[in-house]
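User: I need a structural model of Multi antimicrobial extrusion family protein from Polysphondylium violaceum for a docking pre-check later this week. Nothing fancy, just the predicted structure tokens so I can convert them on my end. Input:
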Amino acid sequence: MYSFNHKIKQFAKFFIKIKEFAKLQWELSEKEFKILMRWSWPLIISNLLNNVAPLFVNLIFVGRLSAKELAGAALANTWTYCTMALGTGLANAMDTLVSQAYGANNVKMVGLTVQRASIVSTISCVIVAGLFGVTKQFLIGVNTEEVTAQLAFEYALLLLPGLWFAFEMVVLQKYLQGQGIMWPSIVVGVVLNILNVLFNYVLVVGVNDSYSTLGIKGSALATSISRIIVFFLMIGIIICFKLYKETWSGWSWECTTLQGFKEYLKLGVPASIQHASEGWGFEILTILAGLIDPENHIPLDAHSICYNFTMLTYQFPSGIAIAVSVRVGQLLGQGEEARAKRVSWIAFAISLFFMVIIAVLQYTLRHQIGYIYISNIDDAQDVVDMTATILPIAALFQIFDGGQTIFQGIVRGMGRVITGAIANFIAFYVIAIPVGVLLTFVGDRGVTGLWWGLCCGLVLICIGLAIVIFKVNWVGEVSKAQKRTKSTVFSKSDIENVVNNETEMETKTTSSAVTITAGTDDLNDNDEDEDEDDSEIEDISTPNTPDHSKKKKRSLKNEFRQSLPQVNRCHPQ
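Assistant: Understood. Predicted structure tokens for Multi antimicrobial extrusion family protein:
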């Protein structure tokens, strides 16, 4: 009976421990969930306002001019987006460097990273400007009509005045995001779009509702002027709210060291390839869609509508990916490897939830979505019907696209950007495009073949990146972050190992002292003092009791932690 009751008590204690452990894990997960959600929604809105909305506004205004000018603006948007991705992608190195340095309390490194990013962005701006200059030659080279190519060139040329300001705006946004400050990006995004609409109206339509002589050039100039103004607005916000105070100590020649640029470009170049290869992949698929039937615009129109719609929905996982990239970087910089692992899978779960809902809605409304984009042209119904055949495939691939986007953000936060670059290259250029070409032009699947190829590529890469994340040595990633940020922050596992070793050594030392004392007493003391000797041994042995051992372990742990640099900057603002 006693044995049975004893087992019941043991089971009850075990159950209570499991319950307490589960409660603790839930509280920690809930905290990280709230942080991710608080950071993600501003980033989603910011992505829409800064990256997507201005392009749509320009096309709406240019569309009032003529079909040729609309085509020219659309092609110019495509070309300039793909080339600018090379420069803005370099700034993604800041996702790793700023967040890890901030988490490790190395505020000096945060400022130096911003300075290096600004210099690199300026150099890349010159290169991208040169690519803008060959817009016409490139478009003619891919069989674009010369008149349309000339219009696209004129549009790209008038984007040049705002190009440097656009690049530096990305640097400022990354600087703030790495510290968990997200709201300024929304403010400048709202102002950017308001200004872009106003300047488009003035320069394209005209104040008297008569078409301006600037034509398509007016729309590009409107965007450039808007970008210049919001850049200075962002500078004003940073200064007025003193968002620089903690991490900026002024310009320093130290930012120009060869080692510093080497470290930045080691992360920036793969990040740029990772960022640009995805955009290029989609544009290649768009060109292929136009080659399906050069005399029939329906496949290209349907593909463009689906691509446009998926680009909008993509902003959801993209915002979450930036948030988890920053959070993982901060936690690794702080030495919180367990929390970094936890927040990674929480971000994946959030993305999966949103993308499943979007996929279901997309499938349900597949026959209506086409009408949002097209209604008053010839063959409108044929375009809508073909769009409805593509959207279910797009709905499926978006679930996995959301997942791989989150995983890309996680590896960026770790600093393993080469992994992300290789994954994107394989997804688009080894799997998606070749499979799409085979299905479309050999298998006679039409435009849906391109989307099935895209689906295959993203599904396989999502699974591959999930395996990579699952096998990550998080303690090792803390060590890499420590080396990268020149920090003395230790992982929680390292702390536990040191404390356990110290406790074990203390226990062995105490036990040895007991043995030596006991042996000495046996040799030197007479029989009349045996009781007193036993009492002494008992007194010496007392520190080795379980309760005292636990207290000693806690004491050592506290002493060890107090000896470390205090890191408290990882908390979200």
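Before docking, keep this in mind: The longest helix spans residues 2-62.
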